Automatic annotation (TrEMBL):
<keyword id="KW-0479">Metal-binding</keyword>
<keyword id="KW-0132">Cell division</keyword>
<protein>
    <recommendedName>
        <fullName>Probable GTP-binding protein EngB</fullName>
    </recommendedName>
</protein>
<dbReference type="InterPro" id="IPR027417">
    <property type="entry name" value="P-loop_NTPase"/>
</dbReference>
<dbReference type="GO" id="GO:0046872">
    <property type="term" value="F:metal ion binding"/>
</dbReference>
<keyword id="KW-0342">GTP-binding</keyword>
<dbReference type="InterPro" id="IPR006073">
    <property type="entry name" value="GTP-bd"/>
</dbReference>
<keyword id="KW-0547">Nucleotide-binding</keyword>
<feature type="domain" description="EngB-type G">
    <location>
        <begin position="22"/>
        <end position="197"/>
    </location>
</feature>
<comment type="similarity">
    <text>Belongs to the TRAFAC class TrmE-Era-EngA-EngB-Septin-like GTPase superfamily. EngB GTPase family.</text>
</comment>
<dbReference type="GO" id="GO:0005525">
    <property type="term" value="F:GTP binding"/>
</dbReference>
<dbReference type="Pfam" id="PF01926">
    <property type="entry name" value="MMR_HSR1"/>
</dbReference>
<keyword id="KW-0131">Cell cycle</keyword>
<dbReference type="InterPro" id="IPR019987">
    <property type="entry name" value="GTP-bd_ribosome_bio_YsxC"/>
</dbReference>
<dbReference type="GO" id="GO:0000917">
    <property type="term" value="P:division septum assembly"/>
</dbReference>
<keyword id="KW-0460">Magnesium</keyword>
<comment type="function">
    <text>Necessary for normal cell division and for the maintenance of normal septation.</text>
</comment>
Length: 197
């Protein structure tokens, strides 16, 4: 898919105020600092479309971007970051959960996980929540540039094996790096295909 345009539409803390357009929507979710906003910038080939930071907890709202005037891409706050105050965390979780439950336009959630790490409880719980709410999702392994390829392959194999203890079949998954652009075509082609179906 060629990206002809990518524009910021609006930020919200409440899904009921999100854009009303009935166009397909894809959301990026995962632990704080996993690389959601960086991945969005990499996919759109725009350095500063979504705000990124080395400090976890950068994205705090539901951010809608319109792509090619045809679909929405949504950058969400991360979950599981201990340094955000407890009160704020509860509010975060509430509106993230609400977003997924209420947003009818959502066709697929991309759950981002760091390719260096073993499955984390919070990620598995989040995938289960999506499954229970019949929300299709794909997994994106991020930061592939951070491990040498032999270690990376071993880690991915082990991750997938562990996932199969929770899921009957492996969800669609992608390996990406926002610095090397690895996985860009694969993710965009997947979105293109789902948009056509
Ligand atoms: P929150 O909005 O805080 O939930 O974080 P996020 O998931 O949006 O992460 P963000 O994109 O802000 O990236 C967090 C940090 O990881 C930044 O310092 C990025 O530069 C770095 N980063 C993200 N993706 C990659 C990647 O593919 N490779 C490398 N080496 N660093 C990355
Ligand atoms: Mg972010």
């Amino acid at each position: 898919m060629k990206i002809k345009s990518a524009e910021f539409v609006m930020s919200n803390s409440n899904v009921t105020n999100a854009p009303k357009d009935r166009i397909p929507e894809y959301a990026f979710i995962g632990r704080s600092n996993v690389g959601k906003s960086s991945l969005i910038n990499m996919l759109m080939e725009r350095k500063k479309l979504a705000k990124t930071s080395g400090t976890p907890g950068k994205t705090q709202l539901i951010n809608h971007f319109k792509v090619n005037d045809e679909w929405f891409l949504v950058d969400l706050p991360g979950y599981g970051y201990a340094k955000v105050s407890k009160k704020k965390r509860t509010i975060f979780q509430y509106f993230i959960e609400n977003y997924f439950k209420e947003r009818e336009q959502l066709v697929c959630a991309f759950v981002l996980v760091d390719s260096r790490h073993d499955p984390q409880k919070i990620d598995l719980e989040f995938m289960r929540f999506l499954g229970e709410n019949s929300i299709p999702f794909a997994i994106i392994f991020t930061k592939a540039d951070k491990l040498p390829s032999s270690k990376l392959n071993k880690q991915l194999l082990s991750y997938k094996r562990k996932l199969l203890q929770h899921w009957e079949s492996l969800p669609v998954n992608f390996l990406t790096s926002s610095s090397s652009k690895l996985g860009r075509d694969e993710v965009l082609n997947f979105i293109d295909q789902v948009n056509k179906d």
